[in-house]
Structure formats: C-alpha cells, structure tokens
UniProtKB/TrEMBL annotation:
It is a multi-pass membrane protein. One of its GO terms (cellular component) is membrane. This is Transmembrane 4 L6 family member 4. Keywords: Membrane, Transmembrane, Transmembrane helix. The keyword Repressor does not apply. Belongs to the L6 tetraspanin family. It comes from the Eukaryota. The chain crosses the membrane at residues 12-33, 45-66, 86-107, 143-170. It comes from Pleuronectes platessa (European plaice). InterPro entries: L6_membrane. It is found in: Membrane.
Length: 199
C-alpha cells in the first residue's frame, strides 16, 4: 500500500476527531448546558486542550497527510521537484506537531479529571469551589452531591473531559503511526514495492 494513501487515511481520520475535540471544549464553557460567570468555569477549560491541542494543531497534520495522496506522493505543496522523500519527511514533522498537540490535550484532560469541576457547594453564590481535590470523586459517586449547581455538572465535566482524553490518545497514536509511515516512505520511496507507485 502506498505510504501516501495510508497517510491520506490517517488525515481523513484526524479531521472528525479534531472536530469532536473542538465541540467538547466549547461545551465545557457551558457546564450542564448552562451559561455561568466566566469565573465559575473550571480553569482547565481555559487551557483550550480541545480547541488548540486536539483541534487547531491537529488540522495542520491532517491537511498535510491528505495532500500527500493528492500529490501522488511526488511532491510537497504541489511542487514535484521537492521529491517523494522530502514530502514524507515533512509529513513526519507535522505528525510530530500533531503528537505534541494531542499530548497537550491529554495532559490538560487528565489534570481536569483529577481536579474535578468547579461548582456551587452551598446556598452562598460566592462559594464556587473545587470540592474534589485528588480525584476521589471518580470512585465515589456519592461525593457528586457536593456540587449543588449547575445540576449534573460532575457527569458533564467527567464525560466531556473523558472524551477529550480518549480522542487525544487516539490522535497521538495516529500521528505516531504517521511518523513511522513517513520514515518508511522517506527511506523506501512512497511505494516500497516499486518506484512507480503501482503497488
């Protein structure tokens, strides 16, 4: 199978994952679907792990991977003189950017899951705090009752950051696979079975 075709498959896979991550990050700005004061939004949401790390930074490698097949593995940016090997090497650099972006999203999501959401814990509207300090709420669902408002914020927080965590891991794996695919394409040519790309 041509390395360029395989890269295109990876690019096609990365785009919907990036869109899902962007949507999850946007939804996290509205805990339980409610509009709250910006000071009452969980800090990790503002780190933009889904918007930047697994979103915007993932679009660049995805487009590069798609372009490898469109250029029939024979150039970079439509310039055939660049050569197949240089195009595959450049795809490795963009795959590295993708790994970094996905890794950032995974770290932010992991920290957010450990800290838990920011929520109102009493009748006093100034008591928006982080009632879960060390991830203990993950194993004890009864603790979720500490969060009074927004209703259902713990499951909202847990669900969306878990999706970001899983999507980030998948993206990192796909980009790491492209690093290997790009190395193989750079060493052997895009189609290792023949230089004409027939295999």
């Amino acid at each position: 199978m041509c390395s360029g075709s395989f890269a295109k498959c990876l690019g096609i896979s990365l785009i919907p994952l990036a869109i899902i991550c962007v949507l999850c990050n946007i939804l996290l700005f509205f805990p339980s679907g409610e509009s709250v004061d910006r000071d009452n939004i969980t800090d990790e949401v503002w780190y933009f792990g889904g918007l930047l790390g697994s979103g915007v930074l993932m679009i660049f490698p995805a487009l590069v991977f798609l372009g490898l097949k469109n250029n029939d593995c024979c150039g970079c940016c439509g310039n055939e003189s660049c050569g197949r090997r240089f195009a595959m090497l450049s795809s490795m650099l963009f795959a590295g950017v993708g790994v970094l972006g996905a890794g950032y999203s995974v770290i932010v999501s992991s920290v957010a899951l450990s800290h838990g959401p920011k929520c109102l814990t009493s009748g006093n509207i100034t008591d928006w705090v982080y009632p879960f300090s060390n991830g203990d709420y993950l194993a004890d669902k009864d603790l979720w009752a500490l969060c009074l408002l927004p209703a259902g914020v713990v499951s909202w927080h847990l669900s969306l950051f878990s999706v970001l965590l899983v999507m980030g891991i998948i993206q990192a794996v796909l980009c790491a696979v492209q690093v290997l695919n790009g190395l193989l394409g750079a060493l052997c040519g895009c189609c290792c079975g023949g230089s004409d790309g027939s295999n």
